[in-house]
Write a structure and sequence with these properties.
With 306 residues, this protein is of the alpha/beta class. It has two domains: 213 residues, 3-Layer(aba) Sandwich (Rossmann fold), CATH 3.40.50.300; 68 residues, Alpha-Beta Plaits (2-Layer Sandwich). Helices cover 36% and strands 22% of the residues. The protein contains eleven helices and 14 strands. A six-stranded mixed sheet has the order 5-6-7-2-8-9, with helices on both faces. A hairpin with a 2-residue loop joins strand 3 and strand 4. The longest helix has 17 residues. The chain is elongated and about 75 Å long. It starts with a strand and ends with a strand.
Length: 306
């Protein structure tokens, strides 16, 4: 069994980054008391998850991948019910519902049935439900999956505000590299149930020296990596489908001999680009594959420490 260990500071966004099936959702379920770890220990807001699951539930908010709202109720009704279930008085639940509806820009739709909401509006309401009782820690499991670019941007803004203004710890799971790069103060890259890299986005990217060279081939050719290994300026060469990647200290100098070597070998190139290190490069370096082609099966169990 593989182990997974990480910690997140108060008032920060901590990202768990990995493909579907890597173990992100399993981790969130363990930390939110919905599942039990096979071994190890976990603490949330300083509370032992296994020993005091009741106290953990009072300290956290949880926003799952699937909607948690009643589609036949209004936003106001959904929020007030959530507040009452958390032990709030009727008066406090009404006040908190109004506050969150305004904060998430849902005032005009507050008394409409949720089934009439757009995907972005419904997702905002899901997050608002998780915030009704002012939790110390908020779990967001793939919060922007299926949202259009504008709705994603609005969600990003609200997540960053919650962590900064309200000093709430946010644990975010995502398979979007740009989302992790934009939001996470620190992140852990998870692959097959284990943390393969951890740090701030900038720390992880700065570990990769030089430029990334990305070459798209007309068709997959298994000989391409061997051809490019003969180019002295290029290192860390990998191939994924029709895409060949490498690293170099000087991209402008390395690109011409890269293209010349492939042409001489009769390998047709459709495009070639240079870029500064990205989280995709970090992920590829530590896992050997891109995020999109990661293991879809994932672990059957996890060991969670902290």
């Amino acid at each position: 069994m593989r182990g997974l260990s990480f910690s997140a500071a108060k008032g920060t966004v901590f990202g768990l980054l990995g493909p579907n099936g890597a173990g992100k959702s399993t981790t969130v379920k363990i930390l939110s008391t919905l599942s039990v770890a096979d071994s190890g220990s976990a603490r949330v807001a300083g509370i032992d998850v296994a020993a005091r699951p009741d106290r953990v539930r009072q300290a956290i908010g949880f926003v799952a991948q699937k909607p948690g709202t009643d589609p036949m109720g209004t936003a106001t009704e959904n929020l007030e019910l959530a507040g009452r279930l958390h032990g709030m008085s009727r008066r406090d639940a009404k006040a908190r519902a109004r506050e969150l509806i305004e904060k998430f820009g849902l005032s005009e739709a507050a008394d409409r049935l949720v089934r009439t909401y757009s995907g972005g509006m419904a997702r905002k309401l899901d997050v608002a439900l998780g915030l009704m009782h002012r939790p110390q820690v908020l779990f967001l499991d793939e919060p922007t999956t299926g949202l259009d670019p504008q709705a994603r941007s609005e969600m990003w803004h609200e997540i960053a505000r919650m962590a900064g203004d309200e000093q709430m710890t946010v644990l975010l799971t995502t398979h979007y590299l740009d989302e992790a790069d934009h939001l996470a103060d620190r992140l852990a890259i998870v692959d097959n149930g284990a943390v393969v890299a951890a740090g701030t986005p900038e720390e992880l990217k700065s570990d990769l020296r030089g430029d990334a060279v990305l070459v798209e081939l007309a068709e997959a050719d298994s000989t391409a990596p061997a051809v490019l290994r003969r180019v002295p300026e290029l290192r860390e060469i990998t191939m994924d489908g029709c895409t060949v990647r490498g690293r170099t200290d000087d991209g402008a100098r390395a690109l011409p001999p890269v293209l010349a070597a492939l042409e001489e070998a009769g390998i047709v190139v459709t495009s070639a680009t240079l870029a500064r290190p990205s989280l995709d490069d970090v992920y590829l370096r530590h896992t050997g594959h891109s995020l999109e082609t990661g293991d879809a099966e994932g672990p059957k169990s996890l060991e969670v420490a902290k």
